[in-house]
Amino acid sequence: MKAQKKRVAILISGGGSNMVTLAQDMLGDPMHPGAPVLVLSNIADAGGLAKARDLGIPTAVLDHKAYDTREDFDAALNDTLRHAAPDVICLAGFMRILTPVFVDAWEGRVLNIHPSLLPKYKGLNTHARAIEAGDNEAGCSVHKVTAGLDDGPLLGQASVPIRADDTPDSLAKRVLVQEHQLYPAVLRHFLTGEPGLLRL
């Protein structure tokens, strides 16, 4: 009997480049264990929404500014996601700090990609901080989402060397190339239940 594909929802706030790589990986391989069922954004004109529609993926918008508190927004987010019934939720540039209202409802089923070699440089401005610290390498990490910001068990990492002439922008571009390889690989790994930290 053919294995049932795991349902994947992807949350974005911007152009959705990581969403596209995740979706194309799932849609382009009939044997992939996952299928994209929803792309949701908290920004109505996020560029990734049109890209998702072009790929034939249902989309939704939930404007966080319409809610008085983070908890109210997260409760509405939960309601919207439950209609899509995802097995896994991938945060792909979703620029919201999530509360326990969301995190507890989907515990163990939410993945995030972050542009640093966690546990270094949680939060923003990761590339500038890595350069300023004199690090030899930077990179990206995929982790399970917990209540802590950019915290939770690591599932995969990819690194790039920091060059002497790097700026935050030049470093970000090279790290993004690695993000587009790492996130789809980790999602496959996660959906098939393979243990261990994936390193690219």
Automatic annotation (TrEMBL):
UniProt GO cellular component terms: cytosol
Protein name as annotated: Phosphoribosylglycinamide formyltransferase
Binding locations of (6R)-10-formyltetrahydrofolate: 70, 95-98, 112
HAMAP family linked to this entry: PurN (MF_01930)
Similarity section: Belongs to the GART family.
E.C. numbers: 2.1.2.2
Top enzyme class: transferase
Residues reported to bind N(1)-(5-phospho-beta-D-ribosyl)glycinamide: 16-18
Keyword tags: Purine biosynthesis, Transferase
Domain of life: Bacteria
Pathways involved: Purine metabolism; IMP biosynthesis via de novo pathway; N(2)-formyl-N(1)-(5-phospho-D-ribosyl)glycinamide from N(1)-(5-phospho-D-ribosyl)glycinamide (10-formyl THF route): step 1/1
